[in-house]
Amino acid sequence: MKYLLVIVIALAILWLWRKSRRSGTQASHQTPPAKPAQPPGVITEIVACGICQVHLPRAEALAGPGGLYCCVAHRQQAGG
Fold it and tell me: How far apart are CA 77 and CA 79, in angstroms?
């Protein structure tokens, strides 16, 4: 009977310890989930950089002389 009581107390302490750890990690991560840039199902046009040919969304591309570019350095390299 004595051993059963010790096991029950040990399990209760373990349960309380795990519960406090779980609630502590949830409290530290209370930031809301990031919203997607566009709702699901919306098609984004993908374009290629005029210098390195890397593909990126048109909304992130930089317009310059002769096309679209992935960064300012490539736009300047193209003459703009």
Answer: 5
* Sequence letter at residue 48: A
Task: Note the Cα 21 to chain centre separation in Å.
Answer: 24
Burial class (CB in 10 A: 0-12, 13-18, 19+), 11: exposed
- The residue behind tokens 């310890």 is 17
Query: ∠ at Cα 45 (43, 51), nearest 5°?
Result: 155
Nearest to 64 by CA among 46, 45, 77: 77
- The string of pLDDT tens digits covering residues 8-54 is 999 999 999 998 887 665 555 566 666 666 677 788 899 999 999 99
φ, ψ of residue 78 in degrees (nearest 5):
-80, -5
